[in-house]
Write a structure and sequence with these properties.
Shape of chain B: globular
Structural class of chain B: mainly beta
Distance between the termini of chain A: 35 Å
Order of helices and strands of chain A: EEEEEEEEEEE
Helix content of chain B: under 10%
Strand content of chain B: over 45%
Radius of gyration of chain B: 13 Å
Helix content of chain A: under 10%
Shape of chain A: globular
Oligomer: heterodimer
Largest interface: A-B, 24 and 23 residues
Distance between the termini of chain B: 37 Å
Chain lengths: ~110, ~110
C-alpha cells in the first residue's frame, strides 16, 4: 500500500479539455508538493501547498490542499500538449518524504 | 545559479559489478536525497543525507549505500549489481530538514545492468 495514492493512474485527453488529478492519503501532511516529470528527466517542482483549504494557481493549473491536509488535487484548464508528463504529489507525514504513485497525462493535439 | 548535477548520465554495468553515481547539490543546500525510478514506475526513496550524516533510508538492501562529503556532494554506491537494479537514479537537494522542504532534482543517471 502506497502512502500517497494518485488517481487516475493514466489519462489521455484531447487538447482544450479540462482534467483533475487527485492525491489521497490517510496521513496528515504539513505540506504537499506537486511535481511534473518528463521522460528521462528529473521531476520539476510546480507548487507547494501548506495550509488546509489552500488554493494556488499557476497559469492554467489550480492546486488545492484538503481542509484536513490529507489530500490534494490538481486541476488543469484547457490542457495543452505541453502539459504532457508524469504528475507526482509528494510530502512528509513526519518521518520520511514520500512520492505519490503518479498520474501519466497525455494531451493529444 | 547552477542546478543539481549528476554524473554520469548513463552507466552500463554487468551483473555482479559495482556502480558509483555522483550528485552535486544546489549551492547552499545541505540535504541530498537519492531515489530509484524503474521504468514506468514511481519514485522509490533510497537515502537521505544532511550535513554529512545519513538521516533515513528506504526499504532497500544494504548493498545500496552512499555518503555525503563536506562540500555536500554525494555518492551512491550499488554493490553486487542485479538485473532489477536497472533504473533511473535521481538525486535531489533541499535547503532544510524541517518544514516544507522542497526538493530540486537533477537529470538523473540511467543505470543499465546486463
Amino acid at each position: 500500500t502506497q502512502l500517497l495514492e494518485q488517481s487516475p493512474q493514466f489519462l489521455s485527453i484531447q487538447e482544450g479539455e479540462n482534467l483533475t488529478v487527485y492525491c489521497n492519503s490517510s496521513s496528515v501532511f504539513s505540506s504537499l508538493q506537486w511535481y511534473r516529470q518528463e521522460p528521462g528527466e528529473g521531476p520539476v517542482l510546480l507548487v507547494t501547498v501548506v495550509t488546509g483549504g489552500e488554493v494556488k494557481k499557476l497559469k492554467r493549473l489550480t492546486f488545492q490542499f484538503g481542509d484536513a491536509r490529507k489530500d490534494s488535487s490538481l486541476h488543469i484548464t484547457a490542457a495543452q500538449p505541453g502539459d504532457t508528463g508524469l504528475y507526482l504529489c509528494a510530502g512528509d507525514p513526519g518521518n520520511q518524504f514520500y512520492f505519490g504513485t503518479g498520474t501519466s497525462l497525455t494531451v493529444i493535439p | 545559479e547552477a542546478g543539481v548535477t549528476q554524473s554520469p548520465t548513463h552507466l552500463i554495468k554487468t551483473r555482479g559489478q559495482q556502480a558509483t553515481l555522483r550528485c552535486s547539490p544546489i549551492s547552499g543546500h545541505t540535504s541530498v536525497y537519492w531515489y530509484q525510478q524503474a521504468l514506468g514506475l514511481g519514485l522509490q526513496f533510497l537515502l537521505w543525507y544532511d550535513e554529512g550524516e545519513e538521516r533515513n533510508r528506504g526499504n532497500f538492501p544494504p548493498r545500496f549505500s552512499g555518503r555525503q562529503f563536506p562540500n555536500y556532494s554525494s555518492e551512491l554506491n550499488v554493490n553486487a549489481l542485479e538485473l532489477e537494479d536497472s533504473a533511473l537514479y535521481l538525486c535531489a537537494s533541499s535547503l532544510s530538514l524541517a518544514g516544507a522542504y522542497e526538493q530540486y532534482f537533477g537529470p538523473g543517471t540511467r543505470l543499465t545492468v546486463t
